[in-house]
Amino acid sequence: MVDEKLRQLLSPVRIASLTLRNRVFVPGHTTNFGLHNEPTARLAAYHAERARGGVGLIITEAIRVHPTSAGRSISLGAFTDACVPAYQRVTDAVHEHGARIFAQIMHAGRQANGDATRTAAWSSSPVAWAAGAHVPHAMGRRDLATVVDAFAAAARRMRRAGFDGLEVHAGHGHLLQQFLSPHTNCRDDDYGGSLANRMRLTREVLDAVHAATDLPVGLRISADEFLPGGLDPDAMVEIVARLRADHPLAYVHVSHSAYHGSWSLATQMADMSFGHAPFRHHAAQFSREFPDLPVLAVCRLDSLPEAAELIVAGEADLVGLARPHIADPHLVRKAVEGRQHETRSCLACNQGCIARVEASLPITCVVNPEVGVEREWAAARRRPVPARRVLVVGGGPAGLAAATAARRAGHRVTLAEAADDLGGQVRVAARVPGRERLGLLTRDLAAEAHAAGVEILLGHRVTAAGVRAGGYDDVVVATGSRPARRALPGGPPVLDLWQAVDLLAAPDAGTGAYVVLDDDGTWAASSVAEALARRGARVHLVSPTASLAARITTYSRLALLRRFTELGVVVHPLRTPRVVGGDTIALTGPLAGADVPVAGVTAVVDAAAPAADDTLFRHLDAAPDGPRIHLVGDANSPRTTLEAVYEGRFAGAFLGRHDSPDAAAVALAY
Questions:
Q1: What architecture does CATH give domain 494-609?
Q2: pTM for the whole thing?
């Protein structure tokens, strides 16, 4: 049964002349599945899977209208007529499964990374988006005319490619917003100064796009730039009202933020620290101001029931779920079929999606390793293999993923976990305040394992002799890793990460001063440091590298730094500890300058690189016979949940068929 809130969410809705089968859409999000700035079969399969999953509308990632916006070859562009057949394959794949698809067309402006193409970025003014970024070229009149013509040409090509509509991107700090915003537009010609002048380029683009095609045209905006002197919701309401007066907008897609090296950028991909639907009030304001204009809402809508709240409250007409659709492309279909409990939860961790985009890698997902390689996984699974007896040792993410995948492949699977609970290190990490959503990963993995029929033994420690005596064909070793702890003789007590998490649960955890040593630059040290500071502790975060939290994506790090500032966390890059005596530590570094003394230290938290817990593997590997061994997750090499779930799923799914070219294709696609 579908409850009434979901019934409204899943009811049809009209956009211009089009009827969508429900009010759920996949908003534009970069996949890096392009090649030579054109969509690939991989991208078509990715969108087809979400269409098959029941979504009403898919909006593509940004399709650059001009080479000065391309940045790199894996982005999408519409520069010549030669791109039309590739886009046609995408629209055909989506239409086959009953969804509609709109093309989002845009010019990135000043943040178009020209390192790969050796091109200068274009913008309204010569103002870089972040300290150290390239200063863009301030566009001249011929440049402006070129961009307007490029938008029109892209619109015509997308019409020929079979798209159902267009979305002009005037938000997220891209080129059109750079002209709209007084924060970035410092011009003194007809395209700067007054609001009418700053709107001129957007008007010209909309005029050109409407003249070029009869497709419905929506507008994506940032309701708030979160920048001093920038655009705010009231200003954007006025801009949309003026644009509507002259242009038949099919809808307004209300997002927020600017592409700017500050907290503003962090809001664009709000991670788990922001909480549920933190920016829904923006869409609500536009719904009140424009009751006859469809309003699309987006950002940190983590599930269909949460998204349905906005529909029921009249705050939006459609709701966008990007990361949840990366995590589970079938979340709508599962809800329609009464299987919502089977939905795989998005963690809002930003680890497999935007962090990989930032590294110019194709996206994947911690909870869904099949992202972008849907065809290869499906093809490999269709090849039958004889059933095998499989033992999985370890009930963390890697072990749970392996056990479920192996059971679904038809094998007899037993999972043994030495602890009394499943979850491994993720269970520990989810106990840190602010990181609780990580617990959804092990909750979902455990539910899948039980549903698949995996035999689970808790409190069961496995030995090499027991494995050999068990008659198993395969053993998956997923025993994880253990935290390291370096001694500071003569200094304050040193805690490893697990001990620090236990400390956070103690009533007096907020007293005193703590030095947190961060060697890895991951969330491990930063989350503990933040949690201690929230309890009232004086916290010093020390890193031997020049960069703080280097392995956390910029989109999350910018928000983290703001919280550190608010909480008074003192950061010491390029420093290491040296004991002075008792409770005093000196922080020393390779650069000139005096050591920094920290007195009254209650304890040191050592977030050193963990060590693989691979003893079982070593014993099994030393034997001349026995079952086939598969080493996965941190037991293989201490990394993150992203690699752990992928390796576990891969090992379980392809037991007995590792020589398959299809399996090799899955591996190479990463």
A1: 3-Layer(bba) Sandwich (3.50)
A2: 0.96
